[in-house]
Design goal:
Layout (H helix, E strand, L loop, with lengths): L18 E2 L2 E2 L8 H16 L5 H13 L5 E3 L1 H7 L2 E6 L9 H14 L4 E6 L3 H13 L2 E7 H6 L1 H9 L3 E5 L6 H14 L4 E4 L9 H9 L1 H12 L9 E5 L4 H7 L8 E9 L16 H4 L1 E5 L2 E5 L24 H8 L3 E7 H15 L5 H13 L6 E6 L7 H10 L33
């Protein structure tokens, strides 16, 4: 693979800088550069300059098809528990159950304006794949989604939702069969089909202009939150802190971008897995905390913070949450952490599972396991966050129920519900591991 344009020496066309400090750039094969340049031109014309009323079309579809705006809800019982005003930005109520539709619909519509006839995408937890499949069905565009075999087996409901929306799901069996491998395979496809195909990347990762493009489509989260917070009675102009889980970082930057000029603390909560160490001998990091423990490197077309060994080889990541199981992070988020504007923190798998159950039991909101990481940080550090806190509920937890059943049965989760209602199956007492759960790839 060619390194393409060096972000330290080359700017994008016009005034679009492909860098965020020293991060970002366009490290791609030469075969992809025409597609990258075409996308950069389309981003400027349609998104930034609103040519042909693109942004009006996009916002109308987000309203009518997506169901925006999503509410900003005061979490009454959590507020009482922590003696802190806690507000939930309910992206779980967006059509499809997650923030992913904001970007998927935006990029699919942009591809249609560009005259593309085929969409490809990658997915980890399946939410981006589901959102892309829904957007393509809505717009009448062919859709193919690459997904690692491991993720297919632990996210079967979302796989079926993609199929139900008419998408073709293409399993990726190399490596650990998770998001990193799915992205790599999707980029290979795009390199061979650039003339009629657009790659709807799912996060603020990849070569310029993807990090800016995805951020701009997701920025509606923070824009609405900022306006809704200021419209509420009995609160100040801005919250003291905004929290969001962080994997690749699309919901994170979506929630943070509008608050960057404000005196608001921004917390990116990463997946600490079982430990923040890196097992170089095994080539595995038992976490997905690249902001906290990673080092500078190139992954999927951009310079960013990466989980890698001493020789610069990318190691396998881990998280109980499929959507956070990624060895890198968006370059803009890496830059904001390095400059001190965003604070990178992490919680482990057990804390995330406890937070999943806690939010479900106290507020009647079943969160995605990704989102649960932010609530786990709130539980442990609420007294450090100020008087008014907003948490981005990036998605709902339907997709994670099988994983939670299995992981809860296997761990001593203090606040887990009584699982004995499930009959013993396959020699496992107390339920949780249902024969058709599929979380361990047994099917």
């Amino acid at each position: 693979m060619s390194t393409g344009r060096d972000p330290e020496t080359t700017r994008g066309s016009g005034d679009l800088d492909p860098r965020f400090g020293r991060y970002g750039g366009q490290y791609v094969p030469e075969a992809l550069m025409p597609a990258i340049e075409e996308l950069e031109d389309a981003y400027r014309r349609y998104v930034l300059d609103d040519e042909d009323g693109f942004m009006d079309d996009f916002r109308a579809r987000l309203r009518d098809f997506g169901g925006r705006p999503t509410p900003l809800q005061r979490a009454d019982r959590l507020s009482e528990r922590y003696d802190t005003e806690v507000y939930l930005k309910r992206e779980d109520l967006l059509h499809g159950g997650a923030h992913k539709l904001n970007n998927a619909l935006g990029q699919a519509l942009l591809a249609q304006y560009m005259g593309k006839e085929r969409i490809i995408a990658e997915t980890g937890a399946g939410q981006h794949g589901t959102a892309t499949a829904m957007a393509c069905s809505h717009l009448g565009i062919d859709c193919e989604v690459y997904m690692g075999r491991t993720d297919i087996n632990r996210q079967r409901p979302n796989v079926f939702r993609m199929l139900a929306n008419g998408a073709e799901v293409k399993p990726v069996d190399v490596g650990r069969g998770t998001l990193k491998e799915a992205i790599s395979q999707t980029m290979r496809d795009w390199a061979e089909t650039v003339e009629d195909t657009h790659y709807v990347i799912g996060s603020i990762v990849g070569p310029h202009p993807f990090p800016r493009l995805v951020r701009d489509f997701q920025a509606i989260i923070g824009e609405e939150t900022r306006r809704q917070f200021r419209d509420r009675e009995r609160v100040g102009d801005s919250p003291d802190a905004v929290l969001a889980c962080a994997g690749g970082g699309s919901n994170t930057m979506g929630a943070f971008h509008a608050f960057r000029p404000d005196d608001v603390d921004l917390y990116a909560v990463e997946a600490g897995g079982s430990t923040l160490a890196v097992d170089e001998a095994a080539g595995v990091a038992p976490n997905s905390a690249s902001l906290s423990t990673g080092s500078e490197g190139v992954l999927h077309g951009a310079r960013t913070r990466v989980l890698q060994d001493g020789d610069g080889q990318v190691v396998e990541s881990h998280s109980v949450s499929a959507g956070l199981d990624y060895a890198g992070v968006g370059p803009e988020l890496a830059h904001l952490v390095e400059t001190g504007r965003v604070r990178a923190v992490s919680v482990d798998d057990d804390a995330a599972l406890e937070a999943f159950h806690r939010l479900s039991q106290t507020e009647g909101v079943i969160p995605a396991l990704e989102t649960a990481h932010a609530f786990a940080y709130l539980e442990r550090h609420h007294d450090e966050l100020g008087e008014e806190v907003v948490i981005n509920v990036s998605g709902r937890g339907d997709k994670d129920l099988e994983t939670v059943l299995e992981e809860t049965a296997a761990r001593d989760v203090e606040n887990a519900p009584d699982m004995s209602v499930f009959e013993a199956t396959d020699g496992v007492m107390g339920g949780g591991h249902l024969k058709d759960a599929g979380g361990d790839g047994s099917d």
